[in-house]
Amino acid sequence: MSYQQAGAPHVLLVDDSADEIYPLLEALRSHPCRVTVAFDGIQGYVDAVSLTPDVILMDMCLPRRDGITTIRMLKANPATEHIPVLFLTAATALDERLEGLRSGAVDYILKPFMPEEVVERVRIQLSLARDRSAPIAASTHMAALTTTETPMPPVAPGFPKKGQGKRNSDQVLQRAAAHIIQERLADPPRVRDLAAMLAVSERRITAAFKSSVGMSVFEFIRRERMCKAARLLSQTDLSMLDIVAEVGYSSAANFSTAFRQYWGRTPSAFRNNGVDIV
């Protein structure tokens, strides 16, 4: 659902409470802004990808796919990762607010809110976005003026090549899932839990990992754990027990066995060798 104001900044509003957002919708339209409204996380993501709005206002508690998962998908997609997302929510617990910010939100506005305050925060984000893009535009313009090469003609818009859309979708899904796994590496979610968090099937998650990184979810978790363990061994003075806890193994013996199978040496030998893992 879109409300058009020609030439105005475009705001995507994702919230399932029509009565609650109506005053905000009116305030945004009078700013003026072009406003598109979505009522669940899946539709909000689809609208963000297809319309590329300037700012997204999104509730955390959404049907079909929650706000946290939706923003992870947006930040995993190169086409939408730059769009500032502001959460609108009734959640007051500190850990919920921190999770929202850590997932990529630039601001967090508690309900009930004053529409004028939200509009002002949107205006601030639009101004910040313009400030960030200005040096890039100037640099691109100078490069065009100084180059001696004949510029390439613009690529005509068209449909993606066969299979390209599916590959891009797999990559976005895998990156979003990987972000969740990396946040919870000490106790990673099972495939079915990961699928539920991203509102897709287990088969879809498995296929996305195979397509994007050529490994199963289990193999990806194992790789991430082993790489993190290697970094901690080579770059920190953490004790072995602390490292075991950081990467989620039940005992030092199990960790040592898994580490040796993966890296071909024991954790102690790896640390003493002074190898630096990027």
Could you walk me through the main structural features you see in this protein, from its secondary elements to its overall organization?
The chain is α/β, with parallel strands linked by helices. 57% of the residues lie in helices and 9% in strands. It contains 12 helices and 6 strands. It has helices at residues 18-29, 41-51, 67-76, 94-102, 115-146, 164-183, 191-197, 202-213, 217-235, 240-246, 252-263, 267-273; strands at residues 2-3, 10-14, 34-38, 55-59, 85-89, 107-110. Strands 1-3-2-4-5-6 form a 6-stranded mixed sheet, with helices on both faces. Helix 1 crosses helix 5 (115-146), helix 2 runs parallel beside helix 3 (67-76) and helix 6 (164-183) crosses helix 8. Residues 136-160 have low confidence and may be disordered.
Task: Summarize this structure as a short list of keywords or feature phrases.
six-stranded mixed sheet; 12 helices; elongated
Which helices and strands, and how do they pair?
Elements: E1 2-3, E2 10-14, H1 18-29, E3 34-38, H2 41-51, E4 55-59, H3 67-76, E5 85-89, H4 94-102, E6 107-110, H5 115-146, H6 164-183, H7 191-197, H8 202-213, H9 217-235, H10 240-246, H11 252-263, H12 267-273
Parallel strand pairs: 2-3, 2-4, 4-5, 5-6
Antiparallel strand pairs: 1-3
